[in-house]
Structures are given as structure tokens and as C-alpha cells.
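Entry 14. Structure prediction run on the chain below.
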Amino acid sequence: QSSVAWTSVEGTDYFVLVHGSSASDAGDYVLELESTAPTPVPTPVPTIAPTTLSSANGICDNAIELVTGTPISGSTTDAPVDGIPDSCGTNVAPGRWYKWTGDGNKAFVNTCGSSYDTWLSVFEGSCSDLSCVDNNDDTCGYQSLVSWTSVVGTEYLIYVHGYMRGAGEFVLEVTAEIGAPTFAPTPIPAPTSEPTSSRAPTQSPAPTTEPIGNDDCLTAIDLAIGSEVSGTTLDARPDDFGGVCGQSSAPGRWYKLTGDGEDVTV
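Output returned:
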């Protein structure tokens, strides 16, 4: 079976043809369309020596200012444990404090590329009266990413610490992006016919069977984000699309969807 993923352009129509691998290859199928917010890609750590931590920022009052788009590296192995509210992540691991001033854009802070199981907690307020913005344990492997919509001029306090009592070397970066979507990673559900893990597959609406007329591109059927349809190519005709995007001699069915600016998987 097949899966195609791409980042769609909002308002652009995309045509999807379900077909077989050869002229005689036809049968029943299930087609599903998903849309998820694109994962922000952390900026690679530059080859130049990154800024080294001051040993003093193990406590909130000594938080180090972060510069947007500039990664830094450091270690929590020799840092103290500075208690944080239980509602914003584990508070038994040693950590390092940073601060960043909001610019009104969507903010992303991450420890992707670090060498141990990190945890990130983001606060607003003061060191004596911390208010949790959000926290994250695992997003990029065992490393962490937190995103939020910043307020211009608001100072945010960022605590890099570990899962349970973990400590180690880390890389930290904060980026800001105008109009960036909320980061909401969604695992692709396992096929319902052959589950690949013990986790229950995502429930989808009952498939609907499409009319037989959509074996021509001009009669493509609209697909809604999150929808699923079933059908067959057994009684469909081949529709030659020039052989530039796969085998064109097999019978097939046409669909179309309108991009929403997010990552699409069909």
C-alpha cells in the first residue's frame, strides 16, 4: 500500500489518483487524508564553539539571557536542583536557567541534539512567583520542545533539566516565527488491518463508497481533512497522466483536496 506526505499551500487544489502498479492491477482500497502542523526544524548547531554556560545560572535569579536563533551548549551535571512548581514538570533533577523576552511571535525553545533525556519548563512572572506557560519531556527523541505565542516585552524564564534525576550535556535554542502554527505532533496511526503495536489504532469515521464516475481527473471527488473513503478500481478506466508521476496504465480513481498550509499525509 502507499502513503504520500507533503507540506500543502493554503488554498491550492491537489489531485490524488489511486491506481495500481500495472495495467492489470486493480482492487478494493481505503483512502484517508490527514493534516498535521509541520514540525519546526531546529537550527543545526554551528561548527564554531558555542557559548558556554556560566556555573551561576543553576538558580533562577542568575538566569542567562538567550538571543533568538543563537544556540548555546552546557551541562547540568554540576548544577544544583532548583525547585520548580510540580505543575510544570519534574523538579528533582539539576537544571540551568535562562530568560528570553517575547517579541509577539510564535516562540519555539528546544534541546534537540542534546546527549541526555531532557525536560524543558517555561514560565512567566518572577523567580519568586513562577507561573507555568508550558513544559515538555520528549518531542525530538528523548529531547524536548516547547512552543507558545509570546507577548511583546514579556520576560520568559526557561529551565533546562532532566527526566527523573537525569543530568548531562545539552544544546538549547530559542527561535521565533511569525504566524507559525501551534506545534502539535500527531503520530501517524497504524493501519487498522495490521496494527504494528499494542497501542489501539486511531478511530476513523466509517468509510464511504464513492460514485463510479471519478475515474477521470475532471470528475475528481473532494476529500475533507481527516476523512476516509473506500472504493475499488476494478471497474475503473486508466486515465493517462503522462507517466511523469508513477505508472499510468492501471485503472484508477481521482480525488482532490485543498491545502491548508500544513503537512498533509494521504
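The first strand starts at residue 5 and ends at 7.
Filed with the rest of this week's runs.
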